[in-house]
Amino acid sequence: MIAPPRFFEIGARTNFSFLEGASHPEEMVQAAVALARQGELAGLGIADRNTVAGVVRAHAQLRDMPDDAGLKVQPGARLVFADQTPDMLAFPCNRAGWGKLCRLLSAGNLRSDKGHCTLFVDDLLEWGDEMMLAVLPGRPLLDDRAAGDAFAANLHRFRARFGNRMHLALSADYDGRDSLAFASF
Q1: What SS3 state is found at 57?
Q2: Considering only CA atoms, which of 101, 181, 179, 94 is closest in space to residue 136?
Q3: Contacting residues for 70 by C-beta, under 8 A, at least 6 apart
Q4: Where do runs of H (alpha helix) occur along the chain?
């Protein structure tokens, strides 16, 4: 019998995503390792809002654990833009990608007040190489035709720029409209 593939959580937010994530990265890694030991989790993709601070702490915790049960912690960030660009998850593919993600976030931090990061689509287009990107569509797109058209135009633009490194991340809301939402994207 073939074992089912283990789940790989992407887009997990730590307490470094203020008012969005609650757990410390160290606690999340400890819980993820426990699930990995049971064969229930393959990896944890940490993606805090416009920061990589949680990733650094998570990596340190994983490094200090004697038995990580083969858990993979994927560093990344949830990019939230100040313009009409949809939120997206950004996961570096290699060391160069990590550098580009850090430069992208630095650009947003340098133009903002302390504690804020203001990103625009041009930042992504300039620094988005060497990353796997997953666009996160919002449900209001179903009800607003103009927003849906703008979203589709953004998708085409991103696909032309980033090719097969650009993905669409859909999640079920279980509100009776999931099949409609998934079909529209």
Answers
A1: helix
A2: 181
A3: 36, 42
A4: 25-37, 53-64, 95-110, 121-127, 145-162, 178-184
What was the pLDDT predicted at 85?
87
Percent helix / strand / coil, the chain, rounded to 5? 45, 20, 35
Distance, in Å, from the CA atom of 78 to the CA atom of 46, rounded to the nearest integer, reads 9
The whole-number average pLDDT for the span 11-27 is: 90
Strands 88-92 and 131-135: antiparallel
Q: Are 117 and 106 in contact (CB under 8 A)?
A: no
In angstroms, the CA 85 to CA 113 distance is 21
Which residue from 85, 66, 79, 131 is spatially nearest to 105, judged by alpha carbons? 79
Instruction: Please name the amino acid found at residue 114.
Output: K
The number of beta carbons lying within 10 Å of the beta carbon of residue 180 is 10
Q: What is the pLDDT of residue 179?
A: 74
CA distance 89 to 91: 7
Look up residue 116 and give its amino acid: H
With a threshold of 0.85, does the pTM exceed it? yes
